[in-house]
Known about the structure:
By secondary structure, chain A is an alpha+beta fold. Helix content of chain A is 29%, strand content 33%. Chain A has one helix spanning 2-43; strands at residues 47-53, 59-63, 67-71, 78-79, 90-95, 98-103, 110-112, 115-116, 121-122, 128-131, 134-139. In chain A, a hairpin with a 2-residue loop joins strand 10 (128-131) and strand 11 (134-139). Chain B is 55% helix and 10% strand.
Amino acid sequence: MSGSIVLILRLALALTLYAFLGWALTTLWRDLQKQATALTTRRTAEISLKVRAGSEEPVLRHFVQAEITIGRDTTCDIFISDDSVSARHARLTYHHTQWWLEDFGSTNGTRLNGQAVTTPTVLTNEDEITCGATTLVVAMPSKT
Amino acid sequence: MTTQRESRLLIAAAVFLFLFSLILTLSPAVRERSFNVNYHFSHWIGFALWLIIIIAAHQSMRRHLPDHDPYLFPAAALLSGWGMLTIWRLDTAFGLRQSIWLTISVIVFMIGLRLPNELTFLRRYKYLLLTGSILLTAFTLIFGTNPSGFGPRLWLGCCGIYFQPSEPLKLLLVVYLASYLANRAPIRISTFIVLPSVVVTGIALLILLIQRDLGTASIFILIYTTVLFLATGKRRVLLISAAALALAGLVGYFFIDIIQIRINGWINPWNDPSGNSYQIIQSLLAIANGGTLGRGPGIGNPGLVPVAISDFIFTAIGEETGLAGTLGLIGLLSLILARGLSAAYRAPDQFRRLLAGGIVAYLGIQSLLIIGGNLRLLPLTGVTLPFVSYGGSSLLTSFIALLFLLKIGCDTEVEPAALIDARPFSIMANLLGLGLIAASLTIAWWAIIRSPDLLTRTDNGRRSISDRYVPRGKLLDRSNAPINITQGESGGYQRAYLYPQLAPVTGYTNPVFGQAGLEAALDEYLRGLQGNPSSLITIDHLLYGMPPPGLDVRLSIDLPLQQRADELLGAQKGAVVLLNAQNGEILVMASHPTYDPNQLDKTGASLVQNADAPLVNRAAQGLYPLGDGIKSLFTSDLKLNELYKQLGFYTPPNLFLPVAPVDSSITANIRVSPLQMALAAAALSDHGIRPAPRIALAVNTPQQGWVILNPLSESVQALTQEFADAQAARYIAKGQPYWQQTSSVKQDKIEINWYLAGAPPDWQGTPLTVVVLLEDGNIYLAQRIGSEVLKSALNSSR
């Protein structure tokens, strides 16, 4: 009799142990999938920029990464040989499902549709970014 | 969300430990199969303390470390609570100590939560911390003690509080290496960078090699290598370290005896199961006894393994929670290691990344070393199982390591530092994972596949423990008069020998001296492992971890005749065998001198050394030359070896009784046991047929009542009927209803006297045969004893 009661308790003991592990694993697995989804959504945030430096022909550039730097320095993603542009001038970042424009404290400043950018600002389609004498027109693929 | 997850996991941990404590309380009822027992309650103090400090730490973490990893702390809390309750179950005094140490460790952990997350103080004071710790370890060379009074002196302390400085030294070595190597990232291997770290590690190693603590020394080498590998990503670091470890092992093998013992015990433990390999064999027996589900907390016997509270706590857990429990424990350890590694990946700078990686290496390597050592996967090293084993220094260090991991993993706002090369981390994770998988498979091997073989080993102390709790079957004579019985109550059953003069034949069952005679030969029946339905055996094993009550066995011995033979033999050294020539049933088997098995605990040691060998059953285990009388009794046309073969002199009698190995010489000097002789003589009384001997007639099974135990061999037409009848008629005693023959021969200056007698061929009743053998005395005495026994038997059967 005592043996049977304790056997039930022993089974419950083993079950609790595996409930602990199982619950930990399930939540970890869910986190992992959430992280994967977040990464996938981030990858779809493509952006195209029509770059017109001075009077040159506009060049259409396409990006898939989440951070784009603009500047005269050759390490920048959008490298502009224009003296009115600072070495590291501005950057576009994708987070919280939106593209943000941020000025790096450039000498001549960055303007968005004519307005000076002082804090990170959200971009929308066909926005016009001006860095010195260069303008960049935002083109985002419409979300389906 | 973090808090919610953590509280759910902590609730699961608390339920687990509550159930564990409840089973521990009820365990005496299961052992004694009664509710009227002394229940265990003291361990609830430990559970209450655990609950209070874990809730306090949980609240404190919510306040000071809101975004921490929700898995690390619950896993560590469950492991430490599990270990603490297991220690409480093994030894109440140590259980209380461990509860106090756990409280102290968690309080230190809670204070540590208030420290800044950057852990910069560790970088700043790395040399101070390391030198201080090395100095403390060095002090153990001079002031070192061992709380248990013997063994390696690795502790510092007095007045009942002891501290092992080599425990925190492991963690501080990780801290030092992480900060030293992080400052020099990215690193190229050059003497300039490696030399100082080698020197520091070397000092630590030297101290430990002098202390002869192989386990800690190998952990130091492995930790050093792993952190260096994580920092540099050079695989040759691993190779060089493996070579160094092998070299150290080899040098240790030839120059340090303890290492030699450990390695020999690992390679071949079965050679020396009671000496140097005692620990490891007992550990495997405990794992085997655990099986799949384990015997249940408090219901196994993990105390049979030496140092179960620290070195062998994994084994203790394995015995009481089985494969299910140990796999869960490995799962918990893996969870801690995986989350630690995740913290390393998320670390905001190189120092914290190396620190987290090093801590994972430290916890993983130490766990693998001791789990592998317990399972004979690796040589045994006396290190602790982090969070679980008894030991304040180990527990405190484990909790501080946990604190560092939580601190490193909680900075989710800051972007992780750039990872130059992810390979070293994934290689380390793979190696640790492989080790844990290997350990899991090894547990399954010992607990499931090898378990039945291991549990029947005679050095399995659980057998004599179950003898105290489960009544052993009785040995009865042919008219069901008790010979050996079990007395007492559950928990204190003892064997009582009601007819002690039969001891050389019936033998004994004793926790110290083991088993002998019929008690050994019939053990499976008497212990209830044979004859009971297999479902009953399985259920009793599952519920109680013990066999069902043993079964009574009826012997062919006739107690009144046996008594007569023992009286007649008296103080003579010799043997008497009386058997039924037709069916081989042994009615009398006497061997003198005899002993009292009831006094075995007091006299056992001297009995073993007694020159008269009272423990030997002379009737079945003594071999004696034949002498001319016997030779002439059997003389026929057959060749000597053909005759001896027919008489059964070359085959040991097969019955439920230990017999001597036969003498296979084909000369006339062959030696045979009185039992063999009685069987050969029986052929003369039964028309040349040599019967199959029987001593155990039937076993009383619960379902079918008395079940006949068939003879283990077949009767043989040994001699032709004409020859046997003619010889029996030729040797008829004058005026007596039996044939007889005496024979005497000298062996080692002792005169051996035989007397053989039996029923004539025309006998109408049960044909009986008697054989008397005297090692001293004279032929007339042998004849008198034999004829008296035979006459009493004939009278009683009339």
